[in-house]
Amino acid sequence: MKKMIGLITVFVIALTLLAGCNSSPQTSSPGTTPPNTTAPKLSGTISTNGSTSMEKVVASLIEAFKAENPDVTITYDATGSGSGITAATEGTADIGLSSRNLKDSETGLDATIIALDGIAMIVNNTNVVDNLTIEQIAGLFTGEITNWSQVGGADAPVAVIGREAGSGTRDGFESIIGVTEECIYDQELTSTGAVITAVSSNQYAIGYASLSAVSSEVKSVTVEGVQCTEDTILDGTYAIQRPFVMVTSSSKELSAAAKAFIEFALSDEATEIIANAGAVQAR
Amino acid sequence: MKNRLSAKRRAYGTILKGFILLCAGITVMLLAILIGFIFYRGLGNITWELLTTARSALKNTIGILPNILYTLYIILTTLVIALPVGIGAAIYLNEYAANKRFVRVIEFATETLTGIPSIIYGLVGYLFFCQKLGLGSSILAGSLTLVIMTLPTIVRTTQEALKTVPDSYREGAVALGATKWYMIRTIILPSSLDGVVGGAILSIGRIVGESAALIFTAGTGYALVTHYLQALGTSGGSLSVALYVYAFEQGEFDVGFAIASILIIIVLIINFMTKFVKRKLKKV
Amino acid sequence: MKIKAVMEKTMSCLFFICGMVTIAAVITISVYMVLSGIPAIKEVGLSEFLLGQVWKSTAAEPQFGILPFILTSVYGTLGACLIGVPVGIMTAVFLAKIASTRVAATVNTAVELLAGIPSVVYGLIGMIVLVPAIMQLFQLKNGTSLLAAIIVLAVMILPSIISVSRTALMAVPKEYEEASYALGATKMETIFKVSIPAAKSGIAAGIVLGIGRAIGEAMAVMMVAGNVANMPGLFKSVTFLTTAIAKEMSYASGLQKQALYSIALVLFIFIMIINVILNAVLKRGDKR
Question: Which end of chain C is more exposed for a tag (fewer CB within 10 A), N or C?
Fold first, then answer.
């Protein structure tokens, strides 16, 4: 008994020391802004939840915001656009993140578009195909085209990699290409990064992913001759694009910190941060 | 007297023995390859930076310090609740309960809890703790879910330990005029300490390895929170959850293997400690 | 003296409450499962739900047939057992009857280590090594498959089967084996015709434990199975009962959400049935 008490005491002391080492932040009641004559110090916890495509953008914004407001803790759960919207509706997250516009059925929510993102069509680096028309893309994803040779590639089967049904990326892709509910997938993954990984390791694969997440691991083909870059998204020549949206509940009062965070995302300061993360700030 | 077996029986023996050795060999090789591969790809990636920083999107670096902290927070919170309740339940079952059928009902309940898959714990935890009780995605919700998951383990190991305490101890104590609680506190619990600690260590192992239940209740956050009480209300991913997120959702395999290596080292330590505790604390 | 009496009463009450917590937990979980799971089954219709072959939860005209998931879980578990049970029992035999104490101790440590490895680690290796290997070996266009899941599950249930079978085999009374030798049987014959049958119920308990683990596994399987709601095929991407829940749970709403609860209920009932079988098997073994 004594040993156990001893062990527990040591453990607790160690943790308290660890906690005490840092400036103790306020307790988690969001929105406690003590009256101040100088610029109000923001504090509290903001929970964000949703789109995996927005990962890089949101992570960068969180870091930059936290540098200016060290007393605010912002968490990010990458669960998918659908989950983010549900979380905002149910109040389990302060800000929901969605990589698509809200549907008509999703009521009681305010949507703030903070950026535009392109959905890149990606293939394996060994794939010789450089360009695809929207019609070809539709054919590949609905199973009409089953061999790469039919679109100018090698004589090889096509493995179609996509996202789960609640994904904003999937929703954006399918609605723009016009293949809603008609796609036949070989894999349904739960994040943009997972799609990139799957395509990079499978020579027969084709998939779609957020431009902000695409790296040299995969090859992004041109769509109707247009390469997916920040510029072509901004001037609209790249067809497959969608908004990055911060979703908040209309009925629940946002904390001062959360409001400030959303304003930060829309501010001039954030332009470069968002650009570095691979998206384009919405103007 | 020469005892020669028929050719058929000899063949039977050799083939079967070969099969047995093959299977045993497969099991050992499996483990060796598994651990070898993970260490090969992971040990080299365990850098100081990985262990002591948080993920930075602006600097494009990855650190798992927050996840290590979250794992510790979850272990602490879960055990602080589950140990007293579990030990209490075991004491009740072993020392107080008179009705044998009632004891069997509780034991059946405990057995049932053990068999429920962790995804169902995740679902029920999400429904009950996160939504109904309004805790949201938080360490507290995750810990409460894990309390229910680890309760059976603690109850069972404590019960086993209590059963090994000879009845002569109890009889002697009663003969000397001790009351029940006094007897439990001063004689029975100290004697069964090894089982209790063993159960606690076993539970730590389960908590560290748990992912499905935690993803839906404690979330996948990676913000660095050093204040324990604040962390209870934040969404945080434990090490196993972090492995899933970095490897599966972001394709950062190096980090994934590094975390896997750390997890295996933790399992090794836990296994070793269980045996150590059993030996050191056993009061014959 | 009064204080002591009060203390006594308090402590015994406290302990009673603790004992109740386990029962309360089981009841809460069961009640939640049933209450949440019934509505969707009522709405969709029991036979359409259990036997429908199409799962399109987010379509404009949603369909909620979970037969693909049920079959995948069943086939996956059976496949895992097909590989895991022989290897497991044989390894248990090795540990209990053949190995010297030192070798047995080492292999035992190895088995305990296997048991402690988190499922995501198995998933990681499955994703990086197994899936590409299957793609190469069988010349497929995509490696995530039921086969990959079966192999991962088989490895995961090995430790459970081994440890329980080993205990059962070691508990076989020495007299049985000595009598067998006395009658002229060889070691192998004794093992296979006397020891294993004698340890039958214990081994069965180990197998049922393994089955429970296989049917309930979600994360590792999600990383290697492809997660498409197909009717199961060895080389097709499949979805299990568990991964169906995991994949859609966080964003589901309305009928889709309730359908997921119903899947959880089906899974829960499966596990309960397996538990009941386990208890019956063990009780029969005790009577011997």
Answer: N
